[in-house]
């Protein structure tokens, strides 16, 4: 993975999925657009979430909402990922994979722009619309990668995950200063609609030229629900659920945790940015390990163990040493790309990949919604972040066990 370049991914992406009768220059241009899509959608996929997390304190002060709305806001993304994500397989079967992603980018851009108004109702509505767009992209991108980068899934998955982390890092680090420059935290949120508009503009040629064709393997739609009766379906869904709960609870509340312990809002956002920055080289190393079958389990165990250690240090160390848990938790974010790589390689067709991705993400995110919402209410009731962090520590221990089980030799029995 580390040695594979985007150029290599481009070369490998040209042939298998494209009609051989299409001229080579057009095939190459389609492959260039596919790489641009991976990069630009990756940049958008977490920026709308981490930008809000960094601004939650300022938004609550400006708009004056209570603890219920404060707990609901970081929960909306996960609920949207569950509900809208469940419909992605059906939607891609009806209008095509690329057009489904284009529709998702329209929702994302419009929703982010809507959050610029100083209204609790529009803030909630815009968050629902934007996060629904992200949900469709979440589920559709493993299939998009399989369709366009069949022989370079590790390189494309790594590129996608790294750009996703870079977008999240940038949003977490600059949203507070950006909002200060614009004079309002709501405008600081809405500014990220520009990034969504760039992705939409770059992706439209792919969507316009796409045909509503059957996915590779001859099937347009495979129901995800029977996969719950399989070992891979159960383990992928369970692992996705627990890692999503941990990741989104952390992205939603980590700046708030650090602020409540005495750091200023900009420093709290920077701690979250460090988590994201560390995850970038971690993804490169972990996916490089995962290209070798005998190192897949060590890669999973390394990142899951780092996550466990991160929550322990977050509990026991003072906020002035917040960089230590931030580094460990950044390494712990590697569970997601490893699991997405396993999903993107699953099944015998892109339709079957979409089915497993839909199952894992829709059911997983529905369960994970309890994280941001429940932890916010628990903190409000306990007046302390210690009980929520103890629960997250227990969740990271369960994640470690699931990583061990999903990488057991018999994991190949997927069907």
Anisotropy-based shape: globular
Q: What structural category arises from helix and sheet content?
A: mainly alpha
What is the β-strand count? 0
Distance between the termini: 27 Å
Q: List the total number of helices.
A: 19
Estimated radius of gyration: 20 Å
Sheet-strand content, in percent, reads: under 5%
CATH superfamily: MFS general substrate transporter like domains
- CATH class category label: Mainly Alpha
- Give the ordered list of helices and strands: HHHHHHHHHHHHHHHHHHH
Summarize the structure.
With 415 residues, this protein is an all-alpha fold.
Notes on the structure:
By secondary structure, this protein is mainly α. It has one domain (6-412): Up-down Bundle (Growth Hormone, Chain: A), CATH 1.20.1250. The protein is built from 19 helices and no strands. The chain has helices at 6-13, 24-44, 47-63, 67-72, 76-86, 88-95, 97-114, 120-148, 153-182, 185-190, 193-209, 231-260, 265-290, 296-316, 323-332, 335-344, 350-368, 370-382, 386-406. Helix 7 (97-114) packs antiparallel against helix 11 (193-209). The model is unreliable at 1-22, 212-218 and 411-415 (pLDDT under 50). GO terms for molecular function: transmembrane transporter activity. The chain crosses the membrane at residues 31-56, 68-91, 100-117, 123-145, 157-180, 186-208, 228-254, 266-287, 299-317, 323-343, 355-377, 389-408. It comes from Arthrobacter crystallopoietes BAB-32. Pfam families: MFS_1.
């Amino acid at each position: 993975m580390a040695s594979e370049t985007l150029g290599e991914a481009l070369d490998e992406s040209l042939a298998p999925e494209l009609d051989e009768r299409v001229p080579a220059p057009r095939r190459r241009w389609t492959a260039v657009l596919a790489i641009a899509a991976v990069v630009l959608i990756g940049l958008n996929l977490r920026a709308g979430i981490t930008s809000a997390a960094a601004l939650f304190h300022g938004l609550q002060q400006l708009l004056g909402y209570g603890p219920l709305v404060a707990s609901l806001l970081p929960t909306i993304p996960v609920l949207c990922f569950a509900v809208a994500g469940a419909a992605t397989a059906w939607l891609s079967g009806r209008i095509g994979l690329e057009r489904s992603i284009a529709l998702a980018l329209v929702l994302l851009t419009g929703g982010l722009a809507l959050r610029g108004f100083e209204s609790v109702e529009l803030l909630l509505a815009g968050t629902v619309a934007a996060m629904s767009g992200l949900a469709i992209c979440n589920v559709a991108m493993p299939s998009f990668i399989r369709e366009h980068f069949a022989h370079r899934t590790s390189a494309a998955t790594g590129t996608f995950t790294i750009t996703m982390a870079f977008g999240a890092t940038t949003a977490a680090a600059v949203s507070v200063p950006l909002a200060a420059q614009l004079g309002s935290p709501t405008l600081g949120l809405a500014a990220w609609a520009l990034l969504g508009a760039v992705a939409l503009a770059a992706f439209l040629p792919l969507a316009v030229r796409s045909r509503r064709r059957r996915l590779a393997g001859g099937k347009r739609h495979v129901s995800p629900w029977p996969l719950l009766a399989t070992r891979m379906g159960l383990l992928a869904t369970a692992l996705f659920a627990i890692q999503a709960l941990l990741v989104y609870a952390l992205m939603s509340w980590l700046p708030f945790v650090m602020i409540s312990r005495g750091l200023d809002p900009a420093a709290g956002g920077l701690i979250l940015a460090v988590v994201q920055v560390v995850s970038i080289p971690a993804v490169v190393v972990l996916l490089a390990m995962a290209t070798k079958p005998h190192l897949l389990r060590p890669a999973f165990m390394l990142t899951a163990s780092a996550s466990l250690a991160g929550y322990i240090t977050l509990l026991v160390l003072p906020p002035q040493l917040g960089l230590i848990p931030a580094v460990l938790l950044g390494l712990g974010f590697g569970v997601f790309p490893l699991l997405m790589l396993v999903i993107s390689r699953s099944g015998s067709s892109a339709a079957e990949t979409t089915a497993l991705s839909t199952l894992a993400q829709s059911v997983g995110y529905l369960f994970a919604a309890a994280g941001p919402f429940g932890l916010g209410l628990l903190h409000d009731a306990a007046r302390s972040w210690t009980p929520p962090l103890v629960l997250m520590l227990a969740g990271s221990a369960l994640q470690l066990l699931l990583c061990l089980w999903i990488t057991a030799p018999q994991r190949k029995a997927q069907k």
